[in-house]
Amino acid sequence: MAPPGLIHSSLGHSETGESPQRLGSGDTMSGEETASPSAIQISRIMRPDDANIAGNVHGGTILKMIEEAGAIISTRHCNSQKGESCVAALARVERTDFLSPMCIGEVAHVSAEITYTSKHSVEVQVTVMSENIVTGARRVTNKAALWYVPLSLKNVDKVLEVPPLVYARKEQEEEGRKRYEAQKLERMETKWKNGDVMQPSLNPEPYTVSYSQSTLIHLVGPSDCTLHGFVHGGVTMKLMDEVAGIVAARHCKTNIVTASVDAINFHDKIRKGCVITISGRMTFTSNKSMEIEVLVDADPVALHSQERYRAASAFVTYVSLSKEGKTLPVPQLLVETEEEKRRFEEGKSRYLQMKAKRQAQIDANSQK
User: Fold this and answer.
1) In this structure, are residues 270 and 313 in contact, taking their beta carbons and an 8 Å threshold?
2) Catalytic residue annotation
3) Average pLDDT of every residue of the chain
4) Cα-Cα-Cα-Cα dihedral of 307, 308, 309, 314, to 10°?
5) Are the C-beta atoms of residues 91 and 147 closer than 8 Å to each other?
6) Which of 97, 229, 349, 355 could form a disulfide with 272 if both were Cys (CB 3.0 to 4.6 A apart)?
7) d(Cα 121, Cα 111) in Å, to the nearest integer?
8) Model confidence, pTM
9) Is 148 in contact with 120 (CB distance < 8 Å)?
10) What is the pLDDT of residues 127-185, one digit of tens each?
């Protein structure tokens, strides 16, 4: 039986143009090679418990659905040939923009497609579309790219090889390789910064970094994990979005919504029974947006041989909204220390780069 709210999960056709093989009631997958679909779609109606404080669907809910679709299709692909059974683990989420808010009562259609494979990783492109089931109106709300690595079920520290993807055009493989090399470089740069720790401050002044800084501590239970005892990437992303939302709300004291999520890097797996600390702090504000850095640290309290470690990190951008849903000016961040000034300038650089990229896309579209 499908879980509550799940409407359907449909298999797409492979990029070779052939229909994916389907298993009959008496068929088994053991010892056989099966064709792996390159695209799937999952759909779910948005319920009241999916809402944020503004009344729209929580950004973390959308992120979790995106990751679930990516995990399904990448795990299927990685098990499509003979060899060790594996599960696809989320390694990175590229920037995703929340193009339009999704409302309670609408149906979210999450479409995932494998667009590139390297020797040890899979790129999945995901598009989220909302449907008003009363009027039939549809609109795109999110787009994202995710990277997965296949981990052996016998030894979860062992990364397996990925079955190659058949490309319709040679250019698709070349473009995918460029994206792969770019994200690999950015992941390495992020790892170098992972010694940073957020320290609390007593009696901070309003609009400072310390004033809105927030921390959530969560004990990882069975419901957070895969069947193999590791946290779902989507669960981690939802908790990260919640903490970032608290930081944004404390700074603005208004309704806030997720505008975009910069690359989320997953540096290490989180086991069941770990205590995770999700910390968020303001790094940059423009006139109408604010950037929040979120760090996830895992403490394997039951394993005395392992120390606390950095599990994930990301930058999330929020906007402030009035009760009518209109964008409000954001109070400017007051930076006090040299480290805060450095992070502010880095955030400003990311903001200007993304602004220039969006303008270039607008100009290119207008010339078509």
Assistant:
1) no
2) 52, 241
3) 86
4) 180
5) yes
6) 229
7) 19
8) 0.81
9) no
10) 999 999 999 999 999 999 999 999 998 888 899 999 999 998 989 999 999 999 999 88
- Tell me how crowded residue 196 is: count the other CB atoms within 10 A of its CB: 13
Task: Return the CA Rg of the chain.
Answer: 21
Owner of token pair 């609109």: 139
Confidence bin at 307 (pLDDT 50/70/90): confident
> Percent of the chain having pLDDT more than 90?
66
